[in-house]
Specification:
10% strand; 45% helix; alpha+beta; 3-stranded antiparallel β-sheet
């Protein structure tokens, strides 16, 4: 048997064993027929190699063995005494052991859990990145951004969307989110994102470029492996939650990525940004500042030299797989309007005066001239749109919200 074939077989032992070095030695000894002395040091090196990293794939474990000095010295003397025939099982990292996630050890179990046939599961996961036209799983809408850039909104079709919602509800929402993350988290909002930065001398605002599509498919699959799902199941779950676009689109969309528009994407993005939030929170504590994140918006506040801080933030973001949109970086002192995510943070969290005045004028004209006169964009749900805008103001500033609500109630709708 070749060294590579032997490494692949032994790699299955490493993945099937428990997380400790002793459990790895025990499993490997059964497969190899004897407790070789080199297995202990190898197992400790293996555990150390995985510390703080995502759970290895089988090919990663095999590569580790091929590079391990103990395996290299003894590989010619090794034979397989007991072939491993075990049903795959959940192997969560220590932090994930109390998340109470559903047990899904095989692809067949995943199909039954999602309520689809095995062939449908492979089609929805689309790990080969094929399918277009009527076979595509998404509807697309392109938005033009500044400097000639584009953003593609990828809206999943109903059947795939339902699978993503199920994964969100039964898996992703059970995993704790970093305290600094405020976007798409129950109990947190744009207001809680801005609140820690009110009344501060200096506020730093930074923006992450292409936040959702910059998170690649392999990173999502690695996240599911970290939760404890076997490699095959993790790959299928990752495939269901990611997308590939074929055609004349920016390169970032032509590889497996997190689609902006899928219900599972915000939660997955927050989980993938966990290490980023940990490191930026640590940076903020080191300079006696506050840090929060709302999706791709980063905010720091305090008395530090934030021009220098911005350089460190960009470096950390790059190391964690993200990129800062430098043109959108702003250092705002108390003498100017400190604006974060469309709100003002100078003295208290408040709506922008210009936006409030414009909405008030629109509502007033609706009372005087009728709502049709103000629906210049032919919005199909103009009343609901106004209701949402008024409700937003009410959630931020109750006094201003009451004024707008009073005007809103005087509008005569046909």
């Amino acid at each position: 048997m070749t060294k590579s074939a032997l490494a692949r077989i032994l790699a299955r032992c490493l993945l099937a064993a428990g997380p400790t070095a002793n459990e790895i030695v025990e499993k490997a000894a059964i497969t190899l027929g004897r407790p070789w002395k080199w297995l202990g040091p190898m197992a400790r090196r293996y555990v150390e190699a995985q510390a703080g990293a995502v759970r290895f794939r089988q090919r990663d474990a095999a590569r580790f063995l091929l590079e391990d000095p103990g395996f290299q010295r003894h590989s010619r003397r090794l034979k397989i005494a007991d072939w491993l025939h075990e049903t795959p099982c959940m192997r969560p990292v220590s932090a994930a052991e109390n998340w109470n996630l559903p047990e899904i050890p095989t692809a067949g179990d995943l199909a039954r859990w999602l309520g689809v046939h095995s062939n449908e599961l492979e089609w929805f996961a689309n790990l080969r990145g094929i399918g277009s036209g009527r076979l595509a799983h998404y509807h697309y809408r392109t938005l033009n951004k500044a400097a000639g850039e584009v953003r593609i909104i990828e809206a999943p079709k109903p059947e795939l969307k339902e699978l993503q919602r199920w994964i969100l509800r039964e898996i992703l929402e059970k995993i704790p989110t970093h305290p600094a993350a405020h976007g798409f988290v129950k109990g947190r909002s744009i207001q809680t994102f801005v609140a820690p930065h009110t009344g501060k001398r200096v506020v730093l605002k930074m923006d992450l470029r292409d936040f959702f599509p910059s998170i690649p498919g392999p990173r999502i699959q690695a996240l599911f492996r970290t939760m404890g799902y076997p490699e095959t199941v993790a790959d299928l779950l990752g495939g269901i939650c990611t997308n590939v676009i074929r055609g004349d689109v920016p390169e970032i969309y032509r590889r497996p990525h997190l689609p902006q528009g899928a219900p599972s994407s915000p939660a997955l993005a927050n989980l993938c940004a966990w290490r980023l939030d940990c490191r930026l929170s640590g940076l903020a504590r080191a300079i006696n500042a506050d840090y929060t994140r709302y999706a791709d918006d980063l905010a720091f506040s305090g008395d530090a030299d934030f021009e220098r801080v911005a350089i460190y933030v960009a470096a950390i973001a790059q190391e964690e797989g993200f990129a800062v949109h430098h043109r959108k970086t702003r250092v705002m002192h108390q003498g100017v309007r400190q604006r974060l995510a469309g709100l003002v943070a100078n003295d208290k969290v408040n709506v922008i005066r210009k936006d409030f005045d414009l909405l008030k004028a629109t509502l007033t004209n609706c009372v005087r001239l009728g709502p049709e006169s103000q629906n210049r964009g032919s919005h199909p749900a103009f009343r609901a749109n106004l209701e949402g805008r008024v409700g937003f103001v009410e959630s931020i500033n109750s006094e201003k919200g009451r004024k707008l609500r009073g005007i809103m109630e005087r509008i005569r709708w046909e």
